[in-house]
Amino acid sequence: MLDTFRSDTRAIEGLPVRLVVALVVGVASMSVMLNMLSGVQGLATSELDVKPTPDVVTPGEQDLTFVVVDHEGNPVEGATVIVKSGTADIDGTGVPRAKTDDGGTATLSLDAELGSNREDGTLVVDVKPPAGSSFVDRRENTNIWVVKA
Question: Which stretches are transmembrane (predicted)?
């Protein structure tokens, strides 16, 4: 009986064909499953953007309005807008911050200052997404430009 298995070469010829068929079926099945998963938005994240108004200011105290929107331009409620010193400074203690309302708007009162011998500078704007949301803020936001009048 052992001699019959040694002389039978059909299994060796059929094996590569079966492996190729299994590979093609597996790749096709995986492609269908991945296509179904890409339609699910539960794991997707949406980038936030903040639009300060005005984005060019002079030194001194003033109110600025910030609108936080998602990638489609819809307002985002509950996001925290934070303004930090960049090449320009913010007078006062603490870091100015405010939460957006249901229209995605937050208002901050800032006292911007320029260093000595500086004609201009920037204030950096960050956004912290609402807790438990699928929003992220990975890209740089529009900075506020402070210019001597």
Answer: 15-37
